[in-house]
Design goal:
CATH topology of the largest domain: Rossmann fold
Shape: globular
Number of helices: 10
Oligomer: single chain
CATH architecture of the largest domain: 3-Layer(aba) Sandwich
Distance between the termini: 17 Å
CATH superfamily of the largest domain: HAD superfamily/HAD-like
Radius of gyration: 18 Å
Number of strands: 5
Structural class: alpha/beta
CATH class of the largest domain: Alpha Beta
Length: about 240
């Protein structure tokens, strides 16, 4: 049976996968993330030996449609000789930010209600597992997440929209994709879910996120608040 609304999908899902960014927390305000990007790129330029540049690979650049955020930066460096340095620099900033980020409105209630009903629940993200885990522990949310947290692979080329991490989660859960749901906020997560047939609910708290998700799939299920999902879980 095809579930049409976000509430119906969540009410009947065997397991719930939650994205991290926006759904659980906004790790960086927009202006702060731009500062992080400048800091990381500046450090890379200093680290790189100019004498070796002609023989080496140039620094990758994002296309005009790419978002200016740290995850997009990581994706552009997949396979590059400086990939390890970029990953380490971004992870350091993410760990610092995770200590100060606050939970998204209604996310604590959503986690608590899912746990109370013994719904298999995990967090899946292109952030490092350490940063996500630190956030969950710092905000006393980890007790509600009974399944392992799935973070970014060491190999940046396996970040979403490649579905590798989602496939790993589903295999560990022992459940078909059609019986689970991913609640997330990015087009990369949306595309990865579609690749494995995993129902997707887009969390779009602002117009920009809503436009991006809708542009990727005009039929995407969208919510602007987690509150209706909390109610849906309570009605299970």
């Amino acid at each position: 049976m095809v579930r049409s609304t976000p509430r119906e999908v969540l009410r009947h899902a065997y397991a719930v996968l939650l994205g991290f960014d926006e759904v659980l927390a906004r790790l960086y305000p927009a202006d702060e993330e731009r500062e992080v990007l400048r800091d990381v790129v500046g450090a890379l330029m200093e680290e790189r030996n100019p004498a070796e540049a002609p023989a080496g690979r140039p620094l990758p650049s994002s296309g005009p449609g790419d978002g200016a955020d740290t995850l997009s930066l990581l994706r552009t460096f997949a396979g590059h000789e400086l990939a390890d340095a970029v990953r380490d620099a971004v992870d350091l900033h993410d760990m610092r930010a995770a200590q100060h980020a606050r939970p998204t409105s209604h996310s604590r209630e959503l986690l608590r209600e899912l746990a109370a009903r013994s719904v298999p629940l995990t967090v899946v993200s292109d952030r490092s597992r350490a940063a996500v885990d630190l956030f969950l522990r710092h905000n006393q949310l980890i007790e509600h997440v009974r399944e392992p947290v799935y973070g970014r692979s060491f190999d940046l080329s396996r970040m979403m929209p490649r579905p590798d991490v989602l496939s790993n989660v589903l295999e560990d859960l022992g459940a078909p994709a059609s019986e689970c749901v991913l609640i997330a906020s990015t087009t990369a997560e949306q595309e990865a879910a579609r690749a494995v047939g995993l129902p997707f609910i887009g969390y779009a708290p602002d117009d920009s996120i809503r436009r991006h998700l809708r542009a990727a799939n005009e039929d995407v299920r969208l919510i602007s608040s987690l509150a209706p999902l909390v109610d849906a879980v309570r009605s299970r």
